[in-house]
Amino acid sequence: MEASEVPDHCRIYALSDPSNAEFRGSCDHLHNESCVQCYELEEVMRTIEEECSRALSSAEHQADMLHTIKQARDDIISWKAHQLRAVHQAEAKHSVLAKLDNRSVLLVQDWAMKYMPRKYREAQSDWFAKRGLPWHISVAIRRSEDSEHFESQTLVHVFQSCAQDSVTVASIMLDCLTTLKKEIPDLEIAYYKQDNAGCYHSGNSIISAKLAGDAVGVAVVRNDFSDPQGGKGICDRKAATIKGDVGRYVNEGNDVINALQLKTAIESGQGTTGVKASYVAAKPSSIFNIKWDGISLLNNFEYDETGVRVWRAFNVGSGKVVPWEKFEGVMKQPEKLEILDPPSQSASGAPVFKIVRHRHIKKSSVKADFSTENENQDPSSTDQNKLDDMLFPCPEEGCVKAYSRFANLQTHLDTGKHQMMIEQETLYDRAKREYSSKLTEGCSRIPSVQVTVQAKNDGLPSLSMGWALKTIKKKVRFTKRQTEFLTEQFQKGELSGQKSDPQEVSKAMSLARDQAGQRRFQPDEVLTSQQISGFFSRLSAKKKLEVTAAGKEKKASEVSEVAMESADEDEVSAEAESHLSAVCANVMKDVAIQHPIVSFDLNICELVQKRALTTLRVDRLRDMCIDLELDISDISPQKRKKPYIARLTQLVQECSCSSK
């Protein structure tokens, strides 16, 4: 609920920042009531802790169990906060849809999963070492000319290869607005909705959206982001339909192994009405980085003449204005995409925008379906006693709507509004409940804890303001004992030839004992498999650098030994000297640095000449040094750019381009 006297349910209270008045909403009521279900959850968790303390006599077992319970409690609270944020952020989309007319458009964008090339007749050798084709989907939604229903158009950009970064996304934004402006000359306003991928949720993309609109003559008003893992969107549903058409195209005897063939396959589908595909390439451009502290905590952006007004949660608080002066000197107009093969013109003259409807539904009935959907009373979504007859329930968790036609479900997911109810048991919950009952009724009874729920909430902590806001976890450095243990496990795997499994290492870490028989690590010191996997990756990269450096030294020593033996021989002929010179020349040619020096699709020589390395982040500079096999073991782990820039500059001085 947007406003409630229960702190667990009030979205304004849960998403208000108590430390910042600009991100704090105001409620006209107190939060002094409690929810029975929320109270039962807290009571169950507290009862489990008390029962574990009584049932387990060993102090170690108690510590392990209490730590597990604490992690479970934190996970439940995090999931609860995520559900609330996801529902609240969906209101941003609904508010934009309510404002749309035939002169405004909502653009929903997302990268599709890379398409793996396929042949109609594929040998086994063709199956290995495939490189996926990146393709981007943008869905434009607007109201029809009579403003009675919504229309959508899908814009697909297919690349042979590209970096899925903010620079490419900015070029796609510019191309989408340019295409829509040509089709709709009266287009004046555009809104964006994107997910939390780094290529979208960054300062470069957010500022580039406004610049792209100014270049085309379309006012970009808002840019809203959904909560991470907030469910599938309209782009994912369009991608599934397009993949089905591409699969049928391959089954007809065609190959799809490059971007041009993928574009042709997309346009050949019968179910892709309203889809325009183009084969494009991103032009290389100089890197610019807009530093925006705390941008990962901001989810809603509104553009005006003074600057960008931002919110942590949609319309909670007055918002904070970031002036345009902050971005002066770093803003850059997005580069245009290179159109290698434009969208094919429809020979049938079919409309560019289309309405999602069943093929057997008459056009006259579409108006009624959309109008009733807007009133939250779709004709195919009936009361509770008819839900069992509905074939297509809404997959959104908490939504109780169901439909008798799949087309109406698609319309509801694309442009409709979910109907949330507190009491809702999904099919997955029902399956788990049935499975649990079957186990308890079987021969092997599972012990259960009898919980007595009191009618009052005395002793239970109340939720504080802003409990559902997204936070950033602080990074904690590994202790010396943790580092030594992980290094030992990594070396064992290197010696045995079988890499250590991070999950097994985490389990061994919790069971490790010292010589006195005491635990080496407390439960809160045991690392997760993700943390262990990251540590092993860093050790592997460091070992690779050491092996490369040792190989270079060995090769240089072999060359010097050959030279010394040749000098000691008395019968050295001119032919032997010539052969030695040729060997040395070939070795030097192999170890010499060739121009251009490229790392992560970036021209290092050009960046050094233009003194643009300072615009990169420290972690990016460190990764480039590791990729180029530079020795950075003597550089301290402090966040400084200067030592990494010095290494890269010294490498460029050895390049052939510096001697010209």
Could you characterize the architecture of this molecule?
The chain has 660 residues and is of the alpha+beta class. It folds into 5 domains: 1-92 and 428-472, no CATH class; 100-121 and 130-290 and 330-341, Nucleotidyltransferase, domain 5 (2-Layer Sandwich), CATH 3.30.420; 363-415, no CATH class; 474-570, no CATH class; 593-659, no CATH class. Helices cover 42% and strands 11% of the residues. The strands form 3 sheets. It has a 10-stranded mixed β-sheet with strand order 9-8-7-5-4-1-2-3-6-10, sandwiched between helices. A two-stranded antiparallel sheet has the order 11-12. Helix 2 packs antiparallel against helix 3 and helix 17 (618-627) packs parallel to helix 18. It is globular. The termini are far apart. Residues 358-385, 449-457 and 562-570 have low confidence and may be disordered.
SSE map:
Layout: H1 11-14, H2 36-55, H3 59-99, E1 104-111, H4 124-127, E2 135-143, E3 150-158, H5 166-183, E4 189-194, H6 203-216, E5 219-225, H7 234-251, H8 259-267, E6 275-281, E7 300-303, E8 307-311, E9 320-323, E10 338-341, H9 366-374, E11 392-393, E12 402-403, H10 406-415, H11 427-441, H12 480-496, H13 502-511, H14 529-568, H15 574-591, E13 598-599, E14 602-603, H16 604-609, H17 618-627, H18 642-653
Parallel strand pairs: 1-4, 3-6, 4-5
Antiparallel strand pairs: 1-2, 2-3, 5-7, 6-10, 7-8, 8-9, 11-12, 13-14
Helix pairs in contact: 2-3, 5-6, 13-14, 14-15, 17-18
